[in-house]
Design a protein that fits this description.
By secondary structure, the chain is an alpha/beta fold. The protein is about 40% helix and about 20% strand. It has 14 helices and 14 strands. The protein has a six-stranded parallel β-sheet with strand order 3-2-1-4-5-6, with helices on both faces. A six-stranded mixed β-sheet has the order 8-9-10-7-11-12. Strands 13-14 form a two-stranded antiparallel ribbon. Helix 1 runs parallel beside helix 2 and helix 5 packs antiparallel against helix 13. The structure holds nicotinamide-adenine-dinucleotide. Nicotinamide-adenine-dinucleotide binds next to helix 1.
């Protein structure tokens, strides 16, 4: 490593880890892929070989003990994140961690305290903040182009549910999938949510209900200033990844649609049609994943705050826990209730 090049160790070489590895292999200025760890050694070896990393290991603590590794990118299964954050922080490594930080506020607070004590940089993987469409919406809100935001509608539908093994450790729909939309709601409106009402069903695949999860949901958010937001999720949009937003403000509205591989529109006697939207997050958000990593590397190199910090990672989990409680209890839940519950001492 040169003094200018940050060596990043990847922990978790699954779907998203492979994508990040590809970016670290020459697409992020000032950074390189220094090592890959995955409990499935063959996966680590395959990604390391393909992306030119000199080290592949089944044990992520090898990366933490390696003085040539400056930062880690945690893309392992959700239930490992908090433990790995704490260990990486203790080893003095800067940390980029995929969402969610953890599934409980106690685990999150422990991880955030560890990174704070160590004084390392921490960025959470809310990549949509780096997408050109969403950024333009945020810019419009900040510049007052549509006046005061009053209604927000987020449509967020996956093409197909993930495999059962993924569902088992994902934390469920609200903490795995809707969490991106909770972050987007906060990011776009620039305000905090005071009430969450959620209703949800399992409709797409028997494996979802078997995992105790849901795949179809509507969440209603009320913001501190009275603005109202809805989030609509499905794990099955047969035509591809459906990612749209509309905000109505006091002087206008702004909307973003889906991204397509091409702009061709075919018209004939039977109708007018076009190719489906980009299929899933790997295609739709590719540029945003590269941009978030560049921002992380720049924050380290310039010793500036990361653009998506630990508090940004924690708040959407609070909203996800509130949504889960809301759907179980059939009532609107205040995020403060979730915080209070988390603060209660547990009985031995
Ligand atoms: N930001 C996004 O858009 C986005 C997209 C997909 C996934 N994610 C998040 O990334 C994480 C991984 O998701 P995925 O879809 O890649 O899952 P995945 O199941 O495809 O991959 C997870 C990998 O982690 C490995 N792993 C598990 N425990 C480990 C440990 N202790 N040490 C090292 N490796 C370990 C597994 O062997 C597997 O290869 C999840 O937390 C998920 O929420 C974020």
């Amino acid at each position: 490593m040169t003094a200018q090049t940050l060596s990043v160790g990847l922990i978790g070489a699954g779907r998203i880890g492979r994508l990040h590895a590809g970016h670290l292999a020459g697409q992020i200025p000032g950074a390189r892929l220094g090592a890959v760890a995955d409990v499935q050694l063959a996966a680590a070896q395959e990604v390391a070989a393909r992306c030119g990393a000199p080290v592949a290991t089944a044990d992520y603590t090898d990366l933490l003990a390696d003085p040539t590794i400056d930062a880690v990118l945690i893309a392992a299964a959700t239930d490992t994140h908090a433990t790995i954050i704490a260990a990486a922080a203790a080893a003095g490594k800067h940390i980029f961690c995929e969402k969610p930080i953890a599934l409980s506020l106690a685990a999150i607070d422990g991880a955030l305290a560890a990174s704070g004590r160590a004084g390392v940089k921490l960025q959470i993987g809310f990549n949509r903040r780096f997408d050109a469409n969403y950024r333009r919406v945020r810019e419009a809100i900040v510049a007052g182009e549509i006046g005061r935001p009053e209604l927000l509608h987020i449509i967020s539908r996956d093409p197909a549910p993930p495999p059962p093994a993924y569902l088992a450790t994902s934390g469920g729909l609200f903490l795995d999938m809707t969490i991106h939309d909770f972050d987007m709601a906060r990011f776009l409106l620039g305000g905090e949510v005071t009430s969450v009402f959620a209703t949800a069903s399992a409709l797409t695949d028997p494996s979802v209900a078997a995992a105790g999860d849901v795949d179809t949901a509507v969440v209603v958010l009320t913001f501190a200033d009275g603005a109202i937001g809805t989030i609509e999720n499905s794990r099955r949009a047969v035509y591809g990844y459906d990612q749209r937003v509309e905000i109505l403000g006091s002087t206008g509205a702004i909307a973003i649609g889906n991204n397509h591989a091409n702009t061709a529109i075919i018209s004939d006697r039977g109708g007018v049609r076009r190719d489906p939207p980009l299929h899933f997050f790997m295609e739709r958000y590719l540029a945003s994943y590269r941009a978030e990593l560049s921002a992380f590397v720049e924050a380290i190199r310039l010793d500036q705050p990361t653009p998506v910090n630990g508090a940004d990672g924690r708040l959407p989990v609070v909203l996800g826990l509130a949504a889960e409680r809301s759907r179980r209890e059939g009532r609107a839940v205040r995020p403060a209730e979730v915080e209070q519950q988390a603060a209660l001492p547990t009985l031995a």
